[in-house]
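By way of example, what follows is a protein record of this kind.
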Amino acid sequence: MKSRPFSPRPALPEGISMPNTTEIRSRLEARLHELGVEVERLEAEGTQPLDADWSEQANQLEEVDTAEGLEQVRLAEARDIHAALQRIDNGSYGVCASCGGAIAPARLTAQPTATLCIDCAS
């Protein structure tokens, strides 16, 4: 019995094609740049000296906590983008991490960092 060569990309239904990974890469890299700028801004907010007024300090500390939370969200998004770029590079972009099937091109266009097909994500 002759074995088929392994292909990391599952076949898509006829008439459906993968989204342009060059365009997706460009979108992901642009978003990564935006996130870097935003994280730098959030980090700078956390290094401002506290006001002498106690009530103002409470407000400032609350803002710092909010900024730190936002920073963590942005860093998680950046990790997802790096992972998506790596999948584009290694040819596994568009393959569901759970079932190994194809992730619908419309899903990848809407959510370029998706790792699961719509069925597995549900």
Summary: Helices lie at 21-45, 54-90, 105-110, 118-121.
